[in-house]
Amino acid sequence: MEWKIKNGYVLTPHQVIKEGMVVVEGNKIIDVGKTSELDSKYPRYEVIDATNKIVMPGLINTHTHIAMSVFRGYADDMELMDWLNKRIWPIEAHLNGDDIYAGSLLSILEMIKSGTTTFNDMYFFMDRVAQAVTESGIRAVLCSGMIELKDRARAEETLKIALDFALKYNGAADGRIRTMLGPHALYSCSPDFIKEVRDVSIEKNIPIHIHLAEDKNEPQNIDNMYNVGLVKKNMGPIEYANELGLFDAKVIGAHCIWLKDNEIKILAEKGVGVAHNPVSNMKLAAGVAPVPKMLEAGVNVGIGTDGPASNNALDMIRDMKITALLHKVSNLNPTVAPATEVVKMATVYGARALFDDSIGELAVGKKADIILIDLKKPHLTPIHDVISLLVYSASGSDVSHVMVDGKLIMENRKVLTLDEEKVMELAVKQTYSLFERAGVL
To answer: Which of 20, 56, 115, 170 sees the fewest Cβ atoms within 10 Å?
Structure first.
């Protein structure tokens, strides 16, 4: 398909082009500029009129567990380890592939409607997540989560599942799916298993997605499981991971809250991507990640929603605002995390954190993952600065059009690839089935 998206406020890597145009051929952007200069060059292209709309790269959710939408509202107002041990892990033991598929479709529907075009997911039954991605038209980075807990048989089984999935599905859905390996965390995977996953990652050139430095007590939790002496040595999780050689592979670390300055330096030097999850971190009172310091050090920091069980929503536009506000108040500095930088975190920095230079920008040669945001709303009037409006005033419900890989998957708020009512009905039905199996209902 050939498209020209014209007359909008086009957000390029370096400027906002008023009355701008983005031209798409196939799945790539082939031209960007002023409508007045480009329109006549492409006379037969299909037109999307972006008058009074922002035209920008699709949002990139760098860390989530989308199938956990079936747990939305089930485990709120709890501490992290209690949340995991008492509520989440017990019911996860009853999950099946149908639950995962239904929860994934529901979350993908929510993400499309709020402007996310790529998400990075770690969970179970990932072939069913891949099925939902394929049907919906969204882009995803997927990995099968591995929780080993010193169980050798479990280690072999989960690594085999994760590797088989990664090799089978990398490049699936017409290239919209990429894969990683997903050791859950340093407290749920032994040192030997982390090294084993690292070696497979390097050998097969498959990046790693892992939770890092999420909890203040993580060094103690690691010691309790594996007796490695982190507390005695005053060693943080990033130092420990580096000592294990984890960062010799390509790694994106979710959370990275409790960091010492030298650990930030390690992340930068090793090229580790970071997924910042402000809402779930605040809700679980896990802490405030030193994002301004990481960005200043050159770490690629993207924004993640985390799963719908710990965030309760997947609206990246809302989470952009929360990112900006959180770091302003925690640093007592209103100039920290400016809107322009936060938008980059949700787009180009997120792409870099996922080791993908083909998305995240409206530039010639990039993939045509594009969203339009309707500014003709009371809460988006008047227009002084469109980037400020986007971060501080907009919400996911203002997204009007979504294009992924050059294909329009939402037009004027109507999702073209999924039946919204059927998706929601299926999610409710499957949630009740899960909770009955788990003995909760």
So the answer is: 170
Indicate the average pLDDT of the chain: 97
Helix (H) or strand (E) holding 409: strand 407-411
Could you tell me if 290 and 326 are in contact, meaning their C-beta atoms sit under 8 angstroms apart?
no
Instruction: Kindly indicate the confidence band of residue 79, based on its pLDDT and cuts at 50, 70 and 90.
Output: confident
3-state secondary structure of 20: strand
CA distances from 274 to 38, 79, 191, 314, 432 (A): 38, 23, 21, 18, 35
What is the span of the domain harbouring residue 20?
2-57+366-415
Tell me: do 66 and 174 sit in the same domain.
yes
**Geometric angle at alpha carbon 30, from 25 and 32, rounded to 5°:** 125
Q: What is the CA radius of gyration of the chain?
A: 21
393 & 306 share domain: no
Comparing CA positions, the residue from 355, 350, 283 lying closest to residue 312 is: 283
Could you tell me which residues come within 8 angstroms of residue 221 by beta carbon, excluding any fewer than 6 positions away? Answer: 81, 187, 215
Give the CATH number for residue 89.
Answer: 3.20.20.140
Tell me, what amino acid is at 82?
Answer: D
- Average pLDDT (392-400) is 98
Contact assessment for residue 180 and residue 166, using Cβ atoms and an 8 Å cutoff = yes
17 CB-side CA count, 13 A? 26
106 with 212, same domain: the answer is: yes
Domain boundary (323, 353, 383) is at 353
CATH of the domain at 375: 2.30.40.10
pLDDT of residue 123: 97
Is 433 within a domain? no
Average pLDDT on 196-221 reads: 97
What pLDDT shows up at residue 83? 87
266-295 average pLDDT score: 97
Q: Provide the pLDDT for residue 327.
A: 98
Instruction: Give the total number of structural domains in the chain.
Output: 2
Residue 225 lies in a domain: yes
Q: Is the pLDDT of residue 439 over 90?
A: no
**Same domain assignment for residues 226 and 347:** yes
